[in-house]
Write a structure and sequence with these properties.
alpha+beta, Thiol Ester Dehydrase, Chain A
């Protein structure tokens, strides 16, 4: 987990100033799911809970990071975009933001990578959530696409 997850942390720190400002870090990764953590401090609002925009960013990044890490495990340095995103705010989050991707069938990943191998691009729908007291506080569904290899930055 540490080696491949470190590549995501490095990428965020180098190329994603919004995620860097939120102090997003990898809490756990096991090829089936990714969990990110961001402290409440940089995201706190006037109600002393996490700002909705920050919740959105961390939820999006849990899916984006999942695609990134799965690609890196296969030796692909992907150019990833979020093609579509839908979020539901179900409860306030008065603590650190912890967002996890919800595992998908391995066959979905196989199809995703088969499309990429054949066409040089592919899409996959992933869901993420932020839990509060063991219950969903945020539910996110995103369509993530790799549109080729990452440009040399």
């Amino acid at each position: 987990m540490k080696d491949v997850a470190h590549t995501l942390t490095e990428f965020v720190q180098t190329h994603l100033p919004t995620a860097r400002a939120l102090e997003i870090e990898v809490a756990d990764y096991d090829s089936a799911s990714l969990t990110l953590r961001a402290p409440l401090g940089p995201s706190i609002n006037d109600k002393h809970t996490a700002f909705g925009g920050s919740l959105y960013v961390v939820a999006v990044m849990a899916g984006w990071g999942m695609v990134y890490l799965r690609c890196r495990e296969r030796g692909i340095d992907p150019n990833i975009v979020v093609a579509k995103g839908e979020i539901e705010y179900l409860a306030p989050v008065p603590t650190d933001i912890v967002a996890s991707s919800i595992p998908v069938e391995e066959a979905d990943w196989d199809s995703f990578f088969k499309h990429f191998d054949e066409r040089g691009k592919a899409k996959i729908e992933l869901r993420t959530q932020v839990l509060q007291d063991g219950k969903p506080a945020v539910s996110f569904k995103g369509l993530y696409a790799i549109i080729g290899l990452a440009p040399n930055l």
